[in-house]
Amino acid sequence: MIRTTLLVALLTACSALGAHAAELKLLTTGAFKQVVLALVPDFEKQTGHKVVVANDTAGGVKARIEKGDDVDVAVATPGILKELAAAGKIQAGSETKLAQVGVGVMVKEGAAKPDIGSVEAFRQALLNAKSVAYIDPKSGGSSGIYVDKLLERLGIADQVRPKAKLKQGGYVAELIVDGSAELGIHQISEIVPAKGVVLIGPLPKEIQNTTTYAAAITSSSAHKEAAAALLKALSGPAAAAVLKATGMEPAS
């Protein structure tokens, strides 16, 4: 009798867990994707929820939510989340800062590393490179938009743009690995985990661009309680070590 009672209790508990388990859709910018993928397994194990991860450029995240894609949690820059909130697409007050990251320079593994230790050295490295890869500014990627404007600030846009290899999204490192470009510029968190490339270093501090990433629950989410738990996991203590390993820092 006791054994039967325990079995019924166990089956009831499992049924309740299944009833409350949610499948969450998380849409993130590429720069934060590796952090998400590292943290999601423990979150799923501890909560019973499932997380389906998709990524896009910052502009792509905004566009997809605006057109009504099925998303529960969005990770993007605070500015984009603010715009989405103003349009009623983000749950008010759910915005949570997650991390920040700077822009770095890479070359193919085994290739010579040019000096980028000063603004002038970085400028000369771009001029000397046979080809330079970065995210296509038109795709909405924050690093690509910044790099394109930086070329103008440095007075070398006319020399570098003709030899630029633009990536529509994803890893700029792919263009370095396959030999399409000699020098690559991307956010550090998208260089560190890539195989076949080496991070030379961050941009000189005088021209560095630090991007902050935040997450928020969409207004259309049908799983707001589970989404709130996911936000807590992405911004909690366990995230700190993952951020460091991927070249990011906690948001200040």
Number of domains: 2
Q: What's the CATH H-level homologous superfamily of the largest domain?
A: Periplasmic binding protein-like II
CATH level-two architecture of the largest domain: 3-Layer(aba) Sandwich
Cα gyration radius (Å): 21 Å
CATH class category label of the largest domain: Alpha Beta
Question: Which stretches of 5+ consecutive residues score pLDDT under 50?
Answer: 1-19
Ends: how far apart? Answer: 58 Å
Q: In terms of structural class, how would the helical and strand content be classed?
A: alpha/beta
Spatially, the strands of the biggest sheet line up as 2-1-3-10-4-11
**CATH topology annotation of the largest domain:** D-Maltodextrin-Binding Protein, domain 2
State mean pLDDT (0 to 100 scale): 90
Number of helices: 10
Key structural traits:
alpha/beta; D-Maltodextrin-Binding Protein, domain 2; 2 domains; five-stranded mixed sheet; 10 helices; 42% helix; elongated
Q: Could you characterize the architecture of this molecule?
A:
- The chain has 2 domains: 2-100 and 212-250, D-Maltodextrin-Binding Protein, domain 2; 103-207, Periplasmic binding protein-like II (D-Maltodextrin-Binding Protein, domain 2, 3-Layer(aba) Sandwich).
- Strand 1 (23-29), helix 2 and strand 2 (50-56) form a beta-alpha-beta unit.
- The chain is 42% helix and 23% strand.
- It has helices spanning 2-20, 30-47, 58-66, 78-86, 119-128, 142-153, 157-160, 173-177, 224-235, 237-245; strands at residues 23-29, 50-56, 73-76, 96-101, 103-108, 132-135, 164-167, 183-187, 197-202, 211-217, 249-250.
- It contains 10 helices and 11 strands.
- The chain has 252 residues and is of the alpha/beta class.
- The longest helix has 19 residues, at 2-20.
- A 6-stranded mixed β-sheet has the order 2-1-3-10-4-11. The chain has a 5-stranded mixed β-sheet with strand order 7-6-8-5-9.
